[in-house]
Design brief:
By secondary structure, the chain is of the alpha/beta class. 21% of the residues lie in helices and 25% in strands. The chain folds into four domains: 96 residues, Alpha-Beta Plaits, CATH 3.30.70; 375 residues, Rossmann fold, CATH 3.40.50; 129 residues, Glucose Oxidase, domain 1 (3-Layer(bba) Sandwich); 99 residues, Sandwich (Immunoglobulin-like). The chain contains 18 helices and 37 strands. InterPro entries: PA_domain, Peptidase_S8/S53_dom, Peptidase_S8/S53_dom_sf, Peptidase_S8_Ser-AS, Peptidase_S8_subtilisin-rel, Peptidases_S8_3, S8pro/Inhibitor_I9, S8pro/Inhibitor_I9_sf.
């Protein structure tokens, strides 16, 4: 038996769960800063190996313990180490720190499997009903020659969204590859999908990938990565639609001629299939970002969240800072844990963090109750119901008596066959996935389902390709239907099929699931930064997965509706690519600034954007507001920031060194002083003055800008000095000060919001301010 363990260790390396054999070993990241560029990849590997040899008992053991050697920009390696070995390595010359890479991330579709018991849904959405000036597309040549890399679940290369007709050769600077694996080889890349790699070594330290459940290659089994890729940069494809022809028309990514590269980092949770969860390991994501930097991507889109750890151990934060240093713009999803405060993820100031909101597309499907009351629901499920009234029951009333489950949630296995058969069942969101509720009603023999929102999701209606006729309604309407069921003698309902309409109600509104501020890591940076469409987005899908993602669902679609900040993030990545195509020399901070300061806080009827529960939304919901692509390429002024500015900001947060060549000054600037397009001041006592610098990027060179205080935060007052800025040329920088004072007593820790802007009569450069008081 001992012999056998030894045999496994030495020859099958990472394919077997080494942790089971040596239970005190785990994957550590040994972080060494950055490569200076004077070593070959072989020399780097040898160097990393020599560190390992110094703590391992043999050459052989050192070689078998390495998981990744990071070779492009990030200097360091991931290896299976004991705590003692890690501690010794952290003292070695050249090592900045070692930390366990126990943090795992997951894809940001609505809800997520990672928080058991919290609402989630694989489901849903809509595509590119984006109304936008075509000028930016034209000027940007549709993003031609900009390279967008996505970290995700892989890609379905045969989708029409990724065809390369008419696209010129791959840009010469591209160094990426098309990595072979299960059902994927170099023939699957083309002049559109120019790269595909996969990262599974970190994942496989916890057990080999079960290849019945995913492709061990860049190919996408889940659908998520195909969806995000086609949203950011899919080609214009005509005559697409989801099931039943909903949203029929053409689908196009935000920047339809960009080149795409997939870095597959997310896999099924060990022991289950993708329908029960995905997981993305930190060590794998670090390798993917390092390769993306080396390959030459211009934009990284990451619809991945989780992995709550301090900065010093946050591989995603560290890796994306390396990317930012090379002017790669990184867009990330804010997370789907809203509307609870302080849930926003991907909080670093060098990341563009994206919330989710609605579009103007709608799929109204009337619900008619037996008492003649009519309710507007939404549905994209092809309806096989007859055009007559069906008996209507509440899920809580037709549960199996022996199953202990939250009433009305219609969780798997909870409904009684006898009581449910041929009826329409009212279920509520809250626990479990939306599509599994539909599957449960179907299992129990129900004819259809009305799925009502939980109170927290308000009037945000998410549609799914349910496995039976199903209509989604708001929480208020759900409550009303429940009252009707409980008071009527023989409650009945008629569900009509949905149809697609545009411009049906004020849009956008914020998604209830969109994670919100204040920023739990850096309270003096407002997050999210921006919002973009993330409810009911139609985009390309994997042919290996059903539109519900459920294993039992055997339907296959080319395009599918999905909802989540996962879907809004690639919208921003696409817009970033367009701005980058027009302004190839702009820094990532300048591009972020352009997108933020031109955003709007108004909806389609000129009123303030609301939350899903009908309140006025604020910068902790949407940052600077809803993106306006037509304005984003001509912001007038930008708030620029350099790599050094970010390092200085980290000094203030006392949060672990990233760059061995950088020493923090004795008195570092405060985080509020980071030249950010928004301003947050937490725990104000008395007054504070922060500085900002704006750079003129307007076409004419000469420009005069005037300061406007658009709104004072309640209980506080702020001033801007000077109030006039005169620029003499493009690139001219001017500094101004913002002084914020407490005006009267407010509740400690409670934030108030204000707005200020600079305008030259043509451009409006707008920023939100968030301030809270300590006393
Ligand atoms: C792999 O997954 C399949 C399908 O989910 C399952 O039937 C099988 O038992 C799994 N194999 C292993 C080795 O876990
Ligand atoms: C606020 O400032 C006053 C005056 O400087 C000081 O006495 C007080 O301790 C401060 N309060 C807090 C909570 O920092």
């Amino acid at each position: 038996m001992k012999m056998m363990k030894f045999y496994l260790l030495s020859s099958l390396l990472l394919v077997f769960p080494l942790l089971a054999l040596c239970d005190d070993r785990q994957v550590y990241i040994v972080y060494m800063g950055e490569h200076s560029g004077d070593k070959t990849h072989q020399e780097i590997e040898d160097n990393h190996h020599s560190y390992l040899v110094s703590v391992k008992s043999s050459e052989e053991e050192a070689r078998s313990s390495i998981v990744y050697s990071y070779k492009n920009s990030i200097n360091g390696f991931a290896a299976l180490l004991t705590a003692d070995e890690a501690a010794i390595l952290s003292q070695r010359n050249g090592v900045l720190r070692t930390f366990p890479s126990h943090n795992k991330y997951s894809l940001d579709t609505t809800g997520s499997w990672k928080f058991l018991g919290l609402e989630e849904g694989i489901g849903n959405g809509r595509k590119v009903g984006k109304s936008r000036g075509s000028e930016i597309l034209h000027k940007a040549k549709y993003g031609k020659d900009v390279i967008v890399g996505l970290l995700d679940s892989g890609i379905w290369p045969e989708s029409q969204s990724f065809h390369d007709q008419g696209l010129g050769p791959v840009p010469e600077r591209w160094k990426g590859i098309c990595e072979e694996g299960d059902s994927f080889d170099s023939s699957h890349c083309n002049n559109k999908l120019i790269g595909g790699r996969f990262y599974v070594k970190g994942y496989e330290t916890d057990g080999a990938l079960n290849r019945s459940n995913d492709y061990r290659s860049p190919r996408d089994k889940d659908g998520h990565g195909t969806h995000t890729s086609s949203t950011a940069g899919g080609r214009s494809v005509h005559n697409v639609g989801a099931l039943g022809g909903f949203a029929h028309g053409s689908a196009s990514g935000g920047a339809p001629l960009v080149r795409l590269a997939m870095y597959k980092v997310c896999w099924p949770v060990h022991g289950v299939t993708l329908q029960d969860g995905d997981t993305c390991y930190g060590a794998d994501m670090l390798a993917a970002i390092d390769d993306a930097i080396g390959d030459g991507v211009d934009v990284i889109s990451m619809s991945i969240g989780g992995g709550d750890v301090p900065f010093s151990q946050d591989v995603v934060a560290i890796a994306t800072l390396h990317a930012t240093k090379r002017n790669i713009v990184v867009a990330c999803s804010a997370g789907n844990d809203g509307p609870t405060p302080s849930t926003v993820a991907n909080t670093s100031p060098w990341i563009l963090t994206v919330g989710a909101s609605s579009t103007n597309r709608d799929a109204p499907a009337p619900v008619e109750l037996g008492n003649n009351m009519k309710i507007k629901g939404e549905s994209i499920t092809p309806s096989k119901l007859k055009n007559h009234f069906y008996p209507l029951v509440y899920g809580g009333d037709v549960a199996s008596p022996h199953v202990n489950s939250t009433p009305g949630q219609c969780l798997p296995g909870s409904l009684s066959l006898e009581k449910t058969k041929d009826k329409v069942v009212l279920c509520f969101r809250g626990e479990g996935t939306r599509v599994k509720k539909g599957a449960e009603v179907k299992r129990a023999g129900g004819a259809g389902m009305i799925l009502a929102n939980a109170a927290t999701s308000g009037s945000e209606i998410i549609v799914d390709a349910h496995v039976l006729p199903a209509t989604a309604v708001s929480n208020d309407d759900g409550t009303m239907i429940l009252n009707y069921i409980q008071s009527a003698k023989n409650p009945t309902v008629k569900l009509s099929p949905g149809k697609t309409v545009f411009d049906d109600k004020p849009a956008p509104y914020m998604a209830g699931f969109s994670s919100t501020g204040p920023n739990p890591v850096y309270p003096n940076i407002i997050k999210p930064d921006i919002t973009a469409p993330g409810i009911n987005i139609l985009a390309a899908w994997s042919r290996a997965s059903s539109p519900t993602g459920l294993d039992a669902d055997k339907r296959r679609v080319k395009y599918s509706f999905e909802s989540g900040t996962s879907m809004s993030c690639p919208h921003i990545a696409g817009i970033v690519a367009l701005v980058k195509a027009i302004h190839p020399t702009w820094t990532s901070a300048a591009i972020r600034s352009a997108i933020m300061t031109t955003a709007t806080t108004k909806n389609s009827i000129g009123k303030l954007i609301l939350t899903a529960s009908g309140k006025e939304a604020n910068p902790f919901n949407y940052g600077a507001g809803h993106v306006r692509p037509s304005k984003a390429y001509d912001p007038g002024l930008v708030y620029d920031a350099t790599y050094t500015d970010y390092l200085l900001q980290l000094c203030d947060n006392g949060d672990g060194q990233v760059d061995p060549n950088f020493k923090c000054p004795e008195i570092p600037p405060t985080t509020s002083d980071l030249n950010y397009p928004s301003l947050s001041i937490s725990n104000l006592n008395g007054s504070v003055t922060v500085k900002r610098t704006v750079t003129n990027v307007g076409g004419n060179g000469k420009a005069v800008y005037f300061a406007n205080i658009d709104q004072q935060p309640e209980g506080f007052i702020f001033e801007i000095h000077p109030k006039i800025l005169r620029f003499s040329h493009v690139g001219d920088k001017k500094r101004f000060m913002v002084t914020v004072k407490k005006e009267r007593k407010t509740t400690a820790g409670e934030y108030s919001f204000g707005w200020y802007s600079w305008t030259d009569g043509i451009h409006v450069v707008r920023s939100p301010i968030a301030v809270s008081s300590s006393v």
